From TrEMBL:
Keywords from the named record: Glycosyltransferase, Transferase
Protein's gene: ppnP
Name listed for the protein in its UniProt record: Pyrimidine/purine nucleoside phosphorylase
Protein origin, superkingdom: Bacteria
Function: Catalyzes the phosphorolysis of diverse nucleosides, yielding D-ribose 1-phosphate and the respective free bases. Can use uridine, adenosine, guanosine, cytidine, thymidine, inosine and xanthosine as substrates. Also catalyzes the reverse reactions.
Pfam families per the UniProt record, alphabetical: Ppnp
Molecular function terms from GO: guanosine phosphorylase activity; purine-nucleoside phosphorylase activity; thymidine phosphorylase activity; uridine phosphorylase activity
Family, per entry: Belongs to the nucleoside phosphorylase PpnP family.
Length: 104
């Protein structure tokens, strides 16, 4: 899906790591939420409360889930993060992403 229809978008940005990672909340009529954002080069660690689908639409990064080896996405790709976990990122170029918050 490259576009979203009939959504509300929060004007205020979510800002992390001194502005190196930013996103906007996209709210759907059915109550689901996604964030659309950009990550600048750097190393980051995030924690989840819900299961997340990280859809990388452009850029190059490495990600590491708990108990797994580093994986690379160069261009586009998707990975899933379980609820109540943390994950690490090494962002090599500007990364464009969409994060979907999923019910278990």
């Amino acid at each position: 899906m490259t576009t979203f229809e009939n959504v509300r978008i929060a004007k205020e940005a979510n800002i992390y790591f001194d502005g190196k990672v930013t996103s906007r909340n996209v709210l759907f009529a059915d109550g689901t939420k996604k964030t659309l954002g950009i990550m600048m080069p750097g190393e980051y660690e995030f924690s989840t409360s819900l299961k997340e689908e990280m859809d990388i639409t452009a850029g190059k990064l490495e990600y590491k889930l708990n108990g797994q080896d580093w994986q690379t996405i160069d261009g586009s790709g998707v990975f899933y993060v379980p609820a109540n976990e943390s994950f690490q990122l090494k962002v090599h170029t500007v990364v464009d992403y969409c994060c979907s918050y999923l019910a278990e």
